[in-house]
Every structure is written in C-alpha cells, then in structure tokens.
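Teaching assistant here, posting this on the class forum so everyone can see the example we discussed in section. The complex has two components, and the goal was to see what a joint structure prediction looks like when all of them are supplied at once.
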Amino acid sequence: MPQLATDVARLSLVIETGGMPVRVNTTDHAFLALLQDRYAGFLSPSGNEEQAEIEFDVDLGPSRFADPNAVVSVAQHQGRWKLERGDFRAEWEPASRRGWIRQTANPYSIDAVLRIVHTLVLARQGGFLAHSASAIRNGKAFLFAGVSEAGKTTISRLAPPDATLLTDEISYVRKDVGKHAGGYIAYGTPFTGELAKLGENVSAPIAALYLLAKGTENRIDPLPQAEAARSLLANLLFFAQDEELVQAMFHSAFEFVSRVPVARLTFVPDARVWELIR
Amino acid sequence: MSRLYVARNPRVAARSLDGEMMIMSGRDSTLFTLNKTATILWQSADGTTPLDEIVEHRIVSEFQVEAAEALQDAETLARELASHEILQISEEPFPQRNNAAGESRSGESR
C-alpha cells in the first residue's frame, strides 16, 4: 500500500532585529523568497533550531478578513497574545515562544506582526520602538523623532556619507545592559518609511534624542524633562490593550529622558543641519 | 450631607517631573497632565481623608479661595478625574494603600 500522506517541506528563515532572532516558517517557496528579499541584511543562518527567541508558522491563504484599514487589536488572554488587523490574524504564546500568523502572501502583514511583537518584548525590558529616524555618527546614535511630515525622511535623505542610517521611520531602542550599562542602544531596523530603504543592521549607544521641527534656521534647544517625556510618549509605538505593559512603557519613557539628552532640533531642509549632529 | 472620599486609581501610571504631574491611563494609553489644583487633589487622594478636609487644608490656603466654592469646584474636578478613571470616588473611606507620594513606579501598581 503506497504512503498516502505527503510531507510538506518546512521552509524557514530567521529575521534578527535589535538582537532578537525571530524564526518564520512557511511552506511556500515564493513567500520565503519574498521575505528573503524584504529582510535582506537582517537574516541570520536558520539552521540552529535553538537560535530563535520567537517562532512563527505562517499560514498563507486568500484574503478573508474584512476591512484592511481596520484598527489593529492586540490583547492578551490566558498567556496568549492575539493580534488582529484587517489583513492578518496572529497568536503568540511567550511561554512557549511560538505562534502563528494567518495572512495573504504579502510582506506588509508579517512586518506589522513583527513590529507589534517587538514592542511587547521590549516593553518588559525597558526598551521601545519610536516614530523616529535614527543614525550613527562618530560611533554615537542620534534619534530624530516626530509625527508624519515632521522631517524624519528629510533628515535621513540629508545624512552625510559618514552617517550610517539605522532607520528613516521606526527606531529600535533597548536598555544597554553591557559595556555602557545605564544608557540606551539604538539598533538598525528593516522597518522603513517613505525612503523605503532598510537601515543598516548595526547599533550604537544613543547620544541624543532630537524632536524635529522645520524652521528658518538650524538650531538645537534643550528641552525640560517633562516636555521631553511628554513628547517621547507621543512618539512611542504601542498597540496592546494591556494595563501592565502600558504602565511599563510610561515608566520607560521617563527613565529614558532621565538618562539621554533630549532637545528640539529646528532645521531648514539642507545638509548643513548635520553640522550640529556629531 | 455625606462626605466624599477620593483615591488614586492604582490602574494608572503617574510621575511628577519639573513640577508637572503626568498620568497615563492603563486602559487606553491616554496621557493627562494635571494642573496645580488637580495635582494637589491627586497627591492628597489617599482614600481616607475626606474631600472637604483636603480642600480645607490644601486648597483653600493655597489659592486663597472661599471654602464652599472651593469644595464645589473640587467635587466637580474629582468627578471629572473619576470619569477618566484617574481617581476613584466613594462615600465611604477606601482601604488603605501604601503610595504616599502619588507616583507609581514600574511594577508598583500591578
């Protein structure tokens, strides 16, 4: 009697952002190729089964969820996070480090899931994702925060050759528990904005956070800590309806502004602004 | 007339910085910055001191206002803060909690 069951080959890759490896499993070669292209520069060798901190099985299917513009929902129930938006559904159980994603074969849905999961992990560690461009210059990382149209893409485009762009859209911030304990580190991310250019997969201690404002001159004005905290909170990415993590994020913002200089960077849109950033 | 008691909602996160009291709702992440009167109310809202005593000892002297009018304003303010789930209001004292400064640190209010 011939074997009726057929093994379906499991294809996988490991996407490592901020030092956190996430394994993604799929059975679709084309989707794997799409992810390899999308996350080039942030892929780790996927041979080691123990390597990933989180593992997702992606179940591809036809679009069956209504309203692709629906607000994202992130909630925890009995130790499992349930993530849902118009274009995907996902679950993740931190205790087992495993989860699944149901989506169509596109890079945007899984990108959103990864961003959300990173915010959940970082919230417990005193770190965060922020609406902010970031770059390394002279071994120091600088963050440029602001809402849409504030100038994140512009300042990224104006970066001189000796600056390494970490992201033009979403900065990845972790507490430094190593050499510079007490400070913070910014990591490159594959999460892009208008520039549609992946950041470099490198990191550096954060020297300053600048809140962007377009103006008629280039200048830096230090901010009082209360205003700095309020502005940072307004620029944090956080999606979960979870009191404990919201409180953790709140305190992380205050901790950050007590350790990292925060200033308003007013700039005219030309490269001279980078003379102030060293 | 019954007395009102106010208590800080342990489900919010609070920090004071540069003289500003900032509070974030754990429910929907809304950030509130309290004015001076609301800050006094928040800091005094230990759940066991009646609102009229808070007004008499902390607000009337601070703002040089008439007690009856100040109490009415404080009640309105307390109810508004309660509507945002920042404060809790009761006609009975609340069980005592240990958070004298009115600030929550990470993990304290879990």
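For the discussion questions: The first helix of chain B runs from residue 36 to 44. Residues 106-110 of chain B have pLDDT under 50 and may be disordered. Think about how each of these relates to the inputs above.
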